[in-house]
Design brief:
Blueprint (H helix, E strand, L loop, with lengths): L11 H5 L2 H14 L10 H5 L2 H13 L8 E7 L5 E6 L2 H22 L13 H13 L4 E6 L3 H4 L2 H8 L6 H11 L3 E3 L2 E3 L12 H18 L3 E5 L2 E6 L2 H17 L10 E4 L5 E3 L2 E8 L6 E7 L1 H14 L8 H19 L1 H11 L6 E2 L3 H19 L7 H6 L6 H6 L5 H10 L3 H25 L7 H8 L6
Parallel strand pairs: 1-4, 11-12
Antiparallel strand pairs: 1-2, 3-7, 3-8, 4-5, 6-7, 9-10, 10-11
Helix pairs in contact: 2-4, 2-5, 6-14, 10-11, 12-13, 12-15, 13-18, 15-18
Length: about 475
């Protein structure tokens, strides 16, 4: 395990007893938004008298009268259909936790955390995670241990966690405060429940505590010479041989057990990237292949099926046909979703470019994602064609609006095409060129349909179809 600091952090508590620092922490809490805790105080109600509220909180801290409050238990849906419990602290608790995080973070970032730990760390995240994965794959570390810790945030043993935290922090007041946050319990349906283990997801300090605890795993893997990347409680180990990766997996399981945790066997597997695919961080890494033309090796990375389903779900939620909105309002609802998702997928391209700056040429094909985004764009337009019909919208009416509200129409009114944005951000892709390409493809597709009908002795533009298309003027 990681060694204790020779010079531990003292006087942490004293560093938060400053009005300016509490106000800064409050600003961060305010920017992060979120609902209020069990005391009923919300961001808006606290903001209404923020100067006095911060002064009162500072006085409580100076007099050692501050006491953590139980968190409010709420549930949010997970991508697998299950519900994830969140613990929402009060606004005051979030401010104090943020103040402590602001003092502790620089020390842990500069001296303690491992460079291959990427989750919940400023300046790291998905791009850095992808960079490490790609670097290992490209340099021959193609035997992978894909591991998930079972119920990590719910199962961290409190005493074990405090022993680890105490290796770095010598301030008894702060250690006592962290202990009380862990033991504050939660309220659900007006009933109080004790917390015997875990850190509440939703607490400001929980990500830092999680990284402090799993930092033990990081440095144990490092001592054994094992390559890895960790994002929160999900991590990958890399090795050049099957024998080496199995040994690495045993090391990880041993350390995790020593931490009082358990590997989730149903979510954990060994992967030979020469033959097997794996998913991580919302991306599917598709194993090495050989090009037919010259036999050169390449691999493909695309969004996972779950990521694309989530994309569609978000689009569907914003295009309910029960709403009657202006064209601009529909576009304003959808563009942030499209921009956010595409920007996340662009972390692949950014990681490749970052590795290339360090001399690592990439064999990863980034264009494969274009078809997935093209399909999402088509889905978005289909949803809009129905939602934008004011009188009794149906799928059939939406289909009949395809000619009137075509691909070019949506691009002209400001709907961001995900396919265009992806390639534009990578290489620069003029929107006019994109529209021309789409129009050509649509024209060829229509010509093909007409030709196939004629080969069968049928007319494409039947009188009924012409009549239906003409009637579309009455839909809007």
């Amino acid at each position: 395990m990681n060694e204790e600091l020779k010079h531990k952090m003292h006087s942490v508590y004293g560093q938060i007893l400053v009005q300016r620092k509490l106000m800064s922490a409050w600003q961060q809490v305010k920017d992060n938004k979120g609902s209020g805790g069990i005391d009923g105080v919300t961001i808006d109600s606290f903001k209404a008298n923020e100067e006095e509220n911060i002064s009162n909180l500072l006085a409580k801290l100076k007099d050692k009268m501050y006491k953590p409050t139980s968190v409010k238990r709420v549930y949010i849906p997970k991508k697998n259909g299950k519900m994830r419990p969140l613990g929402i602290p009060t606004i005051e608790d979030r401010i104090v936790q943020q103040s402590v995080v602001n003092v502790l973070n620089p020390k842990f970032e500069n001296e303690i955390f491992h460079r291959w730990s990427c989750g919940y760390r400023e300046g790291l995240g998905a791009e850095r995670t992808m960079q490490i994965i790609l670097w290992n794959i490209e340099t021959g570390y193609n035997h992978i241990y894909d591991c998930d810790i079972k119920g990590f945030f719910d199962n961290i043993p409190h005493k074990n966690l405090m022993r680890v935290v105490a290796k770095y922090i010598a301030d008894g007041t702060v250690l006592d405060m962290i202990w009380k946050w862990l033991k504050a319990g939660y309220m659900e349906d007006s009933i109080y429940h004790d917390t015997v283990s875990g850190t509440p997801q939703g607490g400001v300090i929980s990500p830092l505590l999680a990284n402090i605890y799993l930092n033990e795993l990081d440095w144990e893997l490092d001592k054994e010479g094992i390559r890895f990347v960790r994002y929160a409680d999900d991590f990958l180990l890399f090795a050049k041989t099957e024998e080496s990766i199995k040994k690495a997996g045993e090391v990880a399981k041993r350390v995790i057990a020593e931490l009082g945790l358990e590997v989730s066997m149903e979510k954990t597997k060994f992967v030979d990237f020469n033959n097997d695919d794996f998913d991580f961080m919302g991306f599917t890494f598709k194993h090495w292949r050989n090009r037919k033309k010259d036999g050169s090796k390449y691999f493909v990375v695309t969004p996972t099926e779950n990521s694309l389903k989530d994309f569609k779900k978000k689009i569907k939620e914003k295009t309910m046909k029960s709403l009657t909105l202006s064209t601009k309002a529909w576009i304003d609802r959808l563009n942030p979703i499209i921009r956010g998702k595409v920007n996340y997928y662009l972390n692949l391209h950014k990681a490749i470019k970052a590795n290339e700056k360090h001399g690592q040429k990439s064999s990863c094909v980034v264009t494969a994602m274009g078809q997935d985004l093209h399909n999402i764009d088509a889905y978005t337009r289909r949803r809009l064609r129905i939602a934008m019909i004011h009188k009794s919208p149906t799928q059939r009416k939406g289909y009949l609006m395809t000619s009137k509200w075509n691909n070019e129409y949506f691009a002209r009114i400001g709907l961001i095409p995900g396919n265009w944005l992806y390639f534009d951000q990578m290489w620069g892709y003029d929107i006019e060129t994109y529209i021309q390409n789409l129009t050509k493809k649509a024209k060829k597709k229509l010509e093909s349909k007409i030709l196939n009908k004629r080969k069968r002795g049928q007319e494409y533009y039947t009188p009924d179809l012409i009549k239906s298309i003409s009637a579309t003027k009455a839909y809007v």
